[in-house]
DNA sequence: GCGTTTCGACGAAGCGCTTCGACGGACGAG
DNA sequence: CTCGTCCGTCGAAGCGCTTCGTCGAAACGC
């Protein structure tokens, strides 16, 4: 493998001149630069990543701490990871995967100290997350996907749950729905400090109250069976329900199945609006679900960009952002039963 | 950040002795080793990854070239990636993500030359894949997930499509099914040289013929709509069909929907056995699908282990392996219509 | 015309580690 | 008691690059 020294010899210049030509840190005359570029091309030269990293104290590696979930990763996570990796690459960085859960803060600290990563992206932060503290103390640039309890000055990008739940409620209310239930993630997720469970619930409750409506929210285990039971519970609590907002993909399938089994047609009798969904999930139901799908790819891109602005002072800094979910029309939402047909159109959710 | 020099000073030994104590490359007395370990603990020492990499010419990084698919990644890919990352970490390696499609062999070559990765894991190899050639020529250790056209001596792990399709057919035949159709991936995937499309089709055809049965295989686009159309096409071709084997998750939902719409009960009238499925997909149908699910996690683990055995001569080498999919019972497969009820049990798939 | 900038290039000192050759002392063999 | 071995340790030479200080020569001002 050709080294920078080889290039220098071939171009009849000193090693350092090659380095400057490559980095642009100091001026190099056009003639010299040309000779160097030729030499590099002829030798197929590629700078050695380790040497460069050692000398510059810049590994050009970003680490992504992702949830090593037992349940397997959902499509949103995959989309996020993929988009993050791609964005990193476009900017000359590598993305390494660090599978660490909230409890593994010490491991994170050790890895960070090895200087392998210039910055860290932290997915699925819990409300109280020791990993964040570790990163903060270590002084490594980092960006959270999600937010810790205190909505502090810590750099983050996140889904805008308030906006998303409000959009969902608004969409349904415009169609005449007044009795709407919310199928949330499980109690177990809440116990783990999984933030979306709280933020979405609060958002839904607020959105309903704001419109003078009674919110019916339920935390439901991530299983079709629990989804079926949720329908039973919620319909008992409020028989006049005409719509469900769901943020629990697996349970949603149970909800659909149970409603159909009870002879309730979707969307004629009951509407279902599934929020924060993974790509393609809507299509897997019959009828296809109307969804507000999670902006996984966008989060990945923005997260990396934000992190890079922290790592590399020369890039424009980007502010903390909240991204709402995007409406993807399906066939599971219709005007509330009993409404005049001229209300038939579905207004945009935004 | 403490350096090895700091540790050496504190433990009153030379730099090199610390290095030997850490690596075990040369003997170090117990007393000395103890002093060194104490010093390391007191300083919170962690060896610098870049320096170590430069000096040893070992980055301790594995690269995973994964399909930067437009369609978004499926659960199997996510499971694979996650398991690969975890296995790498358990062995003291990092996993970096390189999103490159088949056409980006030059980019792969450049990155490899930068010496960032000790070895490369290549997902979703196409039948003819320039990336493999590049890796081969560069002399980097690599392992393919999947296989190229010539079933050569190239290191790989893969799903055992023959076995999986044969298991599927066997399972159905034991239940009395004689007219079975296969819903494959799309023609487009075949045109891209996507190997599973071919291997599974060949496997299915062979499995049917071996039993004296007529195979009905169809390549179907990855959409529910195409799945519905496939049902129409196949039922027209062979009205006596009692079972579908599907290897196309999105289309499968269309298949289910179309059958139900035609008043055909699943599994009473028609059985559906979905193969090479992502985790959790079965539960998303109503009734839940019986599946042979893809061993994503196992492939990830074995792929990394194989690669490490190539990278690091001191590890036991592992042979090329083919892993079959695993039966996950659901409620979409039953004895063929018209069969006696005493045949009611579902035999194990192998 | 001479001193002073400015520009472009050079040499050398690291970055923090691995690894090779060497060496002193303890120990067994003769 | 002496010589050869082996064990444990040390010093130094890189690994391939970045970056600082420096310096010659061309360009400039008065």
TrEMBL record, chains A, B:
Domain of life: Bacteria
Stretches assigned to the HTH lacI-type domain: 2-56
Any one GO molecular function term: transcription cis-regulatory region binding
InterPro entries, sorted: HTH_LacI (IPR000843), LacI/GalR-like_sensor (IPR046335), Lambda_DNA-bd_dom_sf (IPR010982), Peripla_BP_I (IPR028082)
Annotated region described as Disordered, given as residue ranges: 331-350
Keywords: DNA-binding, Transcription, Transcription regulation
Record field: compositional bias (Basic and acidic residues): 340-350
Pfam family for this entry, one: Peripla_BP_3
Keyword Acetylation: no
Name this polypeptide is given: LacI family DNA-binding transcriptional regulator
Species of origin: Cellulosimicrobium composti
């Amino acid at each position: 493998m050709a080294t920078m020294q080889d290039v220098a010899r071939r171009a009849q210049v000193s090693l350092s001149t090659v380095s400057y030509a490559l980095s642009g840190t100091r001026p190099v005359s056009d003639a010299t630069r040309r000779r160097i570029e030729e030499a590099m091309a002829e030798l197929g030269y590629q700078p050695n990543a380790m040497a460069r990293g050692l000398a510059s104290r810049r590994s050009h590696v970003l680490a992504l701490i992702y949830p090593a979930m037992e349940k397997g990763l959902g499509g949103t996570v995959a989309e996020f990871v993929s988009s993050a990796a791609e964005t990193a690459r476009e900017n000359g960085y590598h993305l390494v995967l660090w599978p660490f859960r909230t409890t593994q803060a010490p491991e994170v600290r050790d890895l960070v100290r090895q200087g392998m990563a210039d910055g860290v992206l932290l997915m699925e932060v819990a409300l109280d997350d020791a990993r964040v503290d570790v990163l903060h103390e270590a002084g490594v640039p980092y960006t959270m996907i999600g937010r810790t309890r205190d909505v502090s000055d810590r750099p983050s990008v996140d889904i805008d749950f308030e906006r998303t739940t409000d959009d969902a409620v608004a969409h349904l209310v415009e169609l005449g729905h007044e009795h709407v239930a919310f199928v949330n993630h499980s109690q177990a997720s809440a116990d783990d400090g999984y933030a979306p469970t709280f933020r979405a619930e609060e958002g839904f409750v607020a959105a309903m109250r704001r419109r003078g409506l009674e919110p019916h929210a339920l935390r439901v285990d991530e299983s079709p069976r629990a989804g079926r039971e949720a329908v039973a519970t919620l319909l008992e609590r409020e028989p006049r329900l005409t719509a469900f907002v769901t943020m629990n993909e697996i349970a949603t399938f149970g909800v659909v199945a149970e409603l159909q089994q009870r002879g309730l047609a979707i969307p004629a009798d009951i509407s279902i609006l599934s929020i924060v969904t993974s790509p393609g999930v809507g299509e897997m139901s019959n009828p296809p679900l109307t969804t507000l799908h999670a902006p996984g790819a966008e989060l990945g891109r923005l997260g990396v960009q934000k992190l890079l602005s922290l790592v590399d002072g020369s890039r424009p800094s980007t502010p903390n952002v909240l991204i709402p979910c995007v409406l993807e029309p399906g066939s599971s939402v219709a005007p509330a039963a009993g409404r005049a047909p001229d209300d038939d159109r579905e207004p945009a959710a935004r």
